[in-house]
Fold each of these.
Amino acid sequence: MAFSVVSKKNGKTFYLHGREQTLKGGQKVKLYYFGGAVKEGALDALPAGYVVSENSRTGLPLLKKG
């Protein structure tokens, strides 16, 4: 089951996804993002060291270190 968050502003459900991206210099970084549907790359749990917050203006969830 994918990790999900319900927006307090608009009531929509968002699902956490992650993927690995290779930068021009060859360095690999892990990207996290929220989507409206469960797709490839959906994560079952919140990554260690991250917390979920919500943009007060748009209601979109954000993933922050902390």
Note: The longest strand covers residues 13-22.
Amino acid sequence: MADAPRRHRALVLGLGAAATPHLRALLDLSERVEIAAAWSRSAERRAAFAAAFPTVPLTADLEAALADPSIDVAFLLTPPDAREALVGRLVQAGKHVLCEKPLERTTSAAERIVGACAAAGVRLAVMFQMRERPSSRRLAALLDEGALGELAFVEVRIPWWRPQSYYDQPGRGTLVRDGGGVLITQAIHTLDLLIHLLGPVREVAAVAATTCLHRMEGEDFVAGGFVVESGVPGALFATTAAWPGATEEIRVVGTDARALLEGGTLRLQRPDGSEERFGEAAGTGGGAAFMDFPHDWHRAVIADFLDAIDEGREPRSCGRSALAVHRLIEALLLSARRGERVRVPS
């Protein structure tokens, strides 16, 4: 009889809004992972978190947690500007890392994080939970089977909304803390899913702006075109100015069928009028209630991360796979600044 997987002990770093679905997922997986400590440098954050999750042990002593050899996994949920330095300390301590998206503010910093984890021999996963939605996985299978026929084009729409109060929080939408606006903070999920489904994007042409609806440093509107590596053309629209917000969409049109992935649902339509539907509608955080989504998809990413450690393989949402969306985002913004088509680095 095979040995049962060992129970991991986890350190959670960062207790902002992103921590809630992670903690709920970890508590669901309590037979596989124990939350050993949850850390924030802010006493106020720790107090608020204690009220919401009274059973989770909190700590102000990061050094002690890093030095604890029984803690083997870490969940890095801080703002992006803190991640590279913390990853360096985590890998030095031999902890496997699951990082909230994005890996960091720039592609170069993200590449250094991936390299540091590889050199230390620790696993690195990124929380791209949209990959794990049943509807996303169904569309991936249909595309692998060639069920849509020859692909003609793809359309990506992310008509989200954030009120000004969201950007009034210190650091939000800034280059120095977040690395930018709508692309790296919100649209990154759908853009990563696009790449996961159709492969890397090779060329983009884009415009970017900050609309009159927001006072912020980063962009809240991006539109343009792109071509994936296979030659399929596409269109992109991403914003946090489309109040009150709507569900993001990926539409893939082929010669035999067209697929519409809309949040948690997938609709497959054929030229003969037949239609298939898959999945269930669920919140995706597209409006002012930006944490309004289930934590099931987080749980799937975390479970695979733990499986990868136990099985000695890369997680499905590994750090290296996340670099493609970082490169795409930087290419879109570069295209907008230059006013010309830009190749996306491979």
Note: Residues 131 and 196 are 7 Å apart (CA to CA).
Amino acid sequence: MRGHRLIVNRLALVVWAAMLPVGAPSAQTVSPPPAGPLRPYIFPPVEEFQLANGLRVILVQKHTLPVVEGRLILDAGAMREPAAKNGLAALTGSLLSEGTGTLTGADIARAMDAFGARYFTTADFNAAYADVVALKTVFPQALALSARTVAAPSFPAGEVSRVKNQALAGYQQSHARTAGLASDAFVRAAFESTAPFSRPASGTPSTIGALTRDDVINWHRTMFAPSAATLLLVGDLSPAEARSIAQQAYGSWTATRTGQTPVENPIRASSGTRVILIDRPGSVQSSIIIGQPGFRATDPDYLNMVALNRVLGGGFNSRVNMNLREKHGYTYGAGSTLDLRPGGGAFRISSDVRTNATDSALVEAVGEYKRITSEPVPVPELQGAVNNLISAFPNAVQTVQGLAGRLQQLIVWGLPVNFYATYRERLAAVTPEDVRAAAASRLKPDNLIVVVAGDLSKIEAPIRARNLGAVEVWDPNGNKVR
């Protein structure tokens, strides 16, 4: 019976194919219908005020659900720490929730669980964060508790040791993978050693190991103050409620801090493409990064670069992914990133590729980098890329977490809080000429940093034969070997 059904199904398929007119396109080649007009979207209202102690408060009203997120963003990230104390900001950020003068870390966790709240503290390159999400009915109490961990943490000695060990393990785990090796090497090559961005935000074994509890206490005392912080409130709050809750939680915080100069990430001068190789013997894949430093969100052509990035590698159907993955099968995925940071960021293509295709993947990726600077982007391709970005934007900010993430970017980057009110309209107005001008002025395809981490016994000779640039071999710690 099963064989009979199979024969019938195959016969039906043959009959259907025979009914198609000669030259008719197959099912795989039928073009999708053109995109319809974009649905209107209005970004939620954003309001700003300041407490008497200098704390900046930003409210984004979203009343669809009775949920509120409160995210304190402190200018106390790794970009502010001395090079010799690399990892101090991250260590301090992780320890904030591990106790106050009267509560242990377990007490804090149990209290947040009782509220049904999600709470975490951390720090990255840009800032330190204390984030709590809860139902509106209990949010004031949850935020007040989180404020206690920010203003008066106890930093128990046992927790300092535990979190240090976690940071050391995290570093070792990162550098056991080719992606971690390549990422660290790229920023070391792109920026001067004085640039905070040249160092991993989580620290290195030597710097992490040397950190003490006194270092953490001193960092908190000198860097954590309301004048250096922004409280971002997103969710079901009115302006009056936001003022009352912010005052209740943080109004009594009186710490002070000296002024800080703007952070700069000076670029390492170079002429010509550099190819940096890091050995990871036995690796079955190579991690490749191709790019350059020197980008900020405050650049006048920021939105043009956003559009350019989407065309080049910012999505599944972008040029880099369609080339390396779909056309050649070198990788499971490839893309590009506009890594924006205070003081200067970077633009890069990255992918993990098959070892035996490493040199070929580099040639194709570098070729795409050059092509977008030398050839105008066709109107349909640009429109498709931009439409993808602006049509996806409302969905990306439909939750309080999504909204908080977008506003956090503005705060960290130094952009106005109303930036997203006209974001889609301004992005839709980007033209092929805008992208061409941005590519011509910003991208330097003959002065690239190319980093490859993998099994050099298999990939070094083929890469050298491609003559992509001057080849250097580094050890995992960033020291030039040859």
Note: DSSP finds 17 helices and twelve strands in the chain.
